[in-house]
Design goal:
The chain has about 350 residues and is an alpha+beta fold. It is about 25% helix and about 15% strand. The longest helix is centred in the last third of the chain and has 14 residues, at about 265-280.
Length: about 350
């Protein structure tokens, strides 16, 4: 393939199995990565030759890749022409200093204001399936997700969760199953922000309530908590971000009993009450559960599930919704009890 041969001439061997995006170690700023970027954080588009490092942010086109590997502008252009990635020089036309860099998909933070116009989603079903296959083939990562996040392989496959070489990918679908967005999540807290959205993503509940048959559902803060809960067999649905709730989503939950479980901190409790305020007027039976009223450090449903598993010596836990969502009773300050001394007068 042309792009593969081009990168091979640059001394960068691309793996043979990808068909769209090839993961490689960062070749632009390798010293900016821990342990030499042992877990590849850079990806190369096999159609255009464009590349992007999700770790350090370096990016560019095929021409930039040559410059990043110590080629001169002249030898870089020669390589592009040799591999059919640029047209040969025509003396009758001026040669630009560098070929235009093809546009590359980026990711945006969920907190970034979105433009009013509709953008095309920079991912499709082939991408989602490819990322799902990458995760399914990475047994080490699946074990880590089970141990540290409480996710089961069943829940991962059920929701088509994937891995793009840097982050976990979480598809967002409509009531008909059509892809409407993709979230990219760092499950181990190595990058900030932890959650990004592929450009063009339209946010929605995950999974869409139309795909969940249960009459009673748990509404949780974020897909990670949802995956941990569904790994226990609980019918959880995620709000895709603390500030992402849209009142129009209330109609998707009509006829359900909804238990709202947000993080144990001031923002989480505020959002839980705001969601309940929009659900109750729609005649939706709603309950807000504060897992640990005395905490304000962000303790969440995943923490509760992992605590239960440790308490049960690593077994799957808990088996009932009520056991999982039982709030920890508030701790009252110890009352100082004063005991009156009994005294006796002794006659001299």
């Amino acid at each position: 393939m042309t792009v593969r041969a081009y990168y091979a001439d640059l001394g960068i061997e691309l793996p043979a199995w990808p068909t769209r995006e090839a993961p490689v170690r960062c070749f632009a700023q390798p010293d900016a990565h821990n342990r030499g970027d042992r877990s590849p954080s850079c990806s190369v588009n096999l159609a255009s030759g464009a590349w992007n490092c999700h770790g350090c942010g370096a990016h560019g086109g095929a021409y930039d890749a040559a410059l990043a590997t110590s080629h001169s502008p002249r030898t870089a252009m020669q390589l592009l022409v040799t591999h059919g990635l640029a047209e040969p020089y025509d003396p009758g036309h001026p040669t630009p200093d560098r070929p235009p860099t093809p546009p590359r998909p980026t990711t945006v933070s969920l907190g970034t204001p979105q433009p009013t116009e509709t953008r095309a989603l920079a991912a499709d079903e082939r991408d989602v399936q490819h990322w799902a296959e990458m995760l399914d083939a990475d047994s080490r990562l699946i074990r880590q997700l089970a141990l540290r996040r409480g996710w089961s392989s069943r829940a991962i496959r059920e929701l088509n969760i994937g891995f793009d070489g840097t982050r976990i990918t979480i598809p967002i679908r409509g009531w008909d199953g059509a892809l409407r967005g993709v979230l990219r999540y760092d499950p181990f807290g190595r990058r900030d922000p932890k959650m990004l959205a592929v450009p063009g993503t339209r946010l929605g509940l995950v999974p869409n309530p139309a795909r969940e048959p249960s009459d009673r559902v748990i509404l949780v803060e974020g897909p990670p908590d949802m995956l941990a809960a569904r790994s226990c067999g609980l019918p959880a649905i995620a709000v895709p971000g603390m500030s992402a709730w849209q009142p129009t989503w209330s109609k998707l939950l009509t006829g359900r009993n909804v238990t709202i479980v947000m993080d144990c901190d001031a923002p989480g409790r505020r959002v839980a009450n705001e969601i309940a305020t929009t659900l109750r007027p729609a005649s939706i039976q709603t309950e807000v559960v504060d897992l640990w009223p005395d905490r304000s450090d962000g303790y969440d449903l995943t923490d509760r599930i992992l605590d239960h598993r440790r308490a049960r010596a690593g077994s799957r836990a808990p088996r009932t919704l009520s056991a999982l969502l039982r709030p920890v009773p508030p701790v009252h300050p110890k009352r100082t009890r004063v005991r009156a001394r009994s005294t006796r007068e002794v006659a001299p």
